[in-house]
User: Fold this.
Amino acid sequence: MIKRRQWPSRTQQYLRRHVSVAQSNLTNVNSGSSNSGRYTASKRTRRADHTPQTAQPESETYVLALNTDEVHHKAITTLRNQYFPARLNKLSAHVALFRALPGSELPTIQNAIEGLIGQYHPFHISTGKAFLLARGVALEAHAKPAQDIFRTLKAQWSQFLREQDQSFRAHYKIQDRAGAKRIAEKTLEEVQGSFAGSTGMVTGLSLYLYVMGYWKLRYIYHFPEEREQKDLPAMEKTGDEDWPALPNSKAGT
Assistant:
């Protein structure tokens, strides 16, 4: 009796191939060798223009964003989830003020936020026109006090801000790295034709720890009126149970 050769299933082939790649990446990380080919674990670092301007390498970097009411946040996140490439979509909708704040300056950063937060009341935010990015689409976000907050904090942090954090245009990124330009153009046309816009309230600021493309929510700073109405602390610290963190999501941008 002749036995038929048992060919591996597609699942087995997939696992063997990816385990092999993972082992190779681990070897590269441990040995310090580089791979000029496709993306590997050893290349999982932020670009230079997405890191703080400090003398030493930073083991931690932080992102500061507006914290908005839940209804508005969910409306924009639903739109983002519809168009953002799923494999790249690690965040919910957000308006970031600063994207690369150094962990070595965390006490300075927190002191500045705490000194500023008490000067503001909750303020309105609304979406505006949709516009094209290089490979995606974004929505304008109108919230005038956010510009004042940005300018005040920038003046105190200018010594460690990279170029990308030296200016601020409030917006919600709906799609990015979409591939062909025509995909982004189609998204723009659909959003312009079907999205009625959204308004909401900015209730404070949120500080996130940047970890491998995810934003881990660390601190929420509530405006005085917001914390009085809801009996909240001025600064709310979150725990590890919030991993992976998404903007405006306390249960885990």
Remarks:
- The mean pLDDT is 79.
- The CA atoms of residues 91 and 253 lie 3 Å apart.
- Strands lie at 61-68, 96-102, 123-132, 137-142, 171-175, 199-211, 214-222, 235-237.
- The chain has six helices and eight strands.
